[in-house]
Amino acid sequence: MIIITRWGESMKRIAILGSTGSIGCQTLDIVMRNDDIQVMGLTAHTNIDLLEQQIHAVHPKVVAVMDKDKAAILKNRVGNQVQVLAGLDGLIEVAAFEGVDLVVTAVVGMIGIQPTVSAIKAGKDIALANKEALVTAGELIMNLVEQYQVQLLPVDSEHSAIFQCLNGENSRQINKVILTGSGGPFRGMKERDFSNITVEQALKHPTYSMGKKISIDSATLMNKGLEVIEASWLFHLKPSEIDVIIHPQSIIHSMIEFIDGSVMAQMGLPNMKVPIQYALFYPDRKPNSCKRLNLAEMSQLTFEEPDVTSFRCLQLAYHALEIGGTLPTVLNAANEYAVSKFLKQQLDFKNIPKIIEYAMERHKVTPITDVQNVLDTEKWTYELIESRW
């Protein structure tokens, strides 16, 4: 089936920000299995070896590398095959590149905010895998989406599940949304046992193969907290209308409870290619080779309440959402700092929530007025933590 875009053309043209990461690579795998998507732009942070392979595979018009020295090396390698840009300005230019219909934002961290804003202002639809953009600048992003009349399509499996369950339903009839999570590699452990947790242990997610940052966030349950904030913006929900439940099998990806008590769930085997593909081809569905769910083979589907005493990041996220303003930005920035230190083995796992709470308690909350406000708050957070830790 040929997709007819809103421009009346048979080929959907996309750019992938963060093409060398987990989501980016899986997106390209889907693209190469379909003949109705053209890749116009790619970006990477430093992995120019993989980016060079991707250039030869899909022949984009433009690429950008955040590391300017690496960009120069890549430019020398590929010559005139593709336009090579560098730094944040390059990332922003790719996001707004002429002719692109859909931008897949798969970069990790707050670096994704400015390219996302630029893409929206350029009239591009967004397949959002960069949750930090909504966590730290949700009101700004959603106002721009409405102003420029673009689509914001969730790529996270949980938000995609909610999005799919809402298809054809009245969003005003939602009683609550239930986000599911595996519980991470340390489900059942207590905080007193966190002292000797290693980076290698924290990176071993029980059901998904993901990037390092999101794997650590899953281990602390911060990933679920960030998803709560993201869901509140995507689906216009109050904190009290979003529940989190631990579901170790990761078969039910999230649920909606309607005002009549009906509960609708989206199910499937854990595979990020399914929500990525749904976003790429929305509102259509396309066949794929992903393994199918066989309920007869499932011995049980279990659920339990999250342990918010031992895994305090989830409650910190709820608190940040309740207060609003610049506090979610502080939460996110402090978490990025702490996770980076942990991955470098410069911080104990148990201290990640302590750093986040330290920053949140010392922050004077103000309204988010623009992107610069977000960036200034991020800078304040980093400087505060560095002065103490």
Overview in brief:
The chain has helices at 22-32, 48-58, 68-78, 87-95, 113-121, 131-148, 157-166, 199-202, 212-220, 222-234, 273-281, 313-323, 327-343, 352-361, 371-388; strands at residues 12-17, 37-44, 62-65, 83-86, 102-105, 125-128, 152-154, 174-181, 242-246, 252-258, 263-267.
Give the N-to-C terminal Cα separation.
56 Å
Give the CA-based shape: globular
Proper CATH architecture of the largest domain: 3-Layer(aba) Sandwich
Number of separate domains: 3
How many strands in all? 11
Order of helices and strands: EHEHEHEHEHEHEHEHHHEEEHHHHH
Largest sheet: 7 strands, parallel
Structural class: alpha/beta
- Give average pLDDT, whole number: 95
Low-confidence stretches: 1-9
Strand content: 5-15%
| CATH-assigned fold name of the largest domain | Rossmann fold
Largest sheet, order of strands side by side? Answer: 4-3-2-1-5-6-7
The radius of gyration is 20 Å
Output the CATH class name of the largest domain: Alpha Beta
